[in-house]
Amino acid sequence: MPDNQEPKKGYLIEDQETKFDNKPQLEDPRYQASGQLENKVALITGGDSGIGAATAILFAKEGADIVLVHYESHKDAEEVVHRIEAIGRKVVVLSGDLGTEAFADEIATHVKKQFGHIDILVNNAGEQHVHERFTDIPIAEVNRTFQTNIVSMFILTQKMLPLMKKSAAIINTTSITAYQGNPVLTDYSASKGAILAFTRSLSQNQDLLDKDIRVNAVAPGPIWTPLIPATFDKEKLKTWGKGNAKQRPGQPYEVAPSYLFLATAASQYITGQTIHVNGGTVVNG
To answer: Could you say which of 11, 71, 179, 188 is catalytic?
Structure first.
């Protein structure tokens, strides 16, 4: 984004996590690790903040080395890196635009050089933009949202598959909006629906079945991440996330265990499925 251009709502501008007054909680202080991912290698996109950061830290606690991919929030990424290194695991950080094949090739090159393979791919990076009126949505923005949210998953997954070991796991981040829709997040909701279909379709692909690679998804509901204040105004934030059974938004550390479950052998008979982490909102599918 040019320096003289005003940031649009929905873009995660530089270091959103570190500028928060009410910072998302990335770790559960009560958590006791048990080595479920000992010596595994996990690649996590959107790993600089929110759900991606919480998942990266949890995976590291469980013994995994991390490839942390993010867009531009370098200070946020540094905080996550320091935490992973303090846990005692290796971490490689890569920054760039996941919507391009060139960056995906760069990631593949680094992964092959540093680790030789990956065991877990978490496709988590995304963006969203609010528009009260459907006719106000710029088609260029629709294209960009789909490029970031779903096309990037096609690109990166294709590049990573040759590096994925037998019985590896792919976990995609979809959303409650894929099931309920959202009138002010139409293109975002549509892209999340595409991720749901992508997950189900990919899980049945013979190339993956031959390697016993499982493909599942997590569908978060209202989770307090940097994307939320970057998207909604202060008035909307007063009631945001309080319409579920829990009557509150969730924290990133409350979502991360679902990714952990889908990454371990505990879910070895589960593929093509979605875990809903939304505070008690019942959705079909």
So the answer is: 188
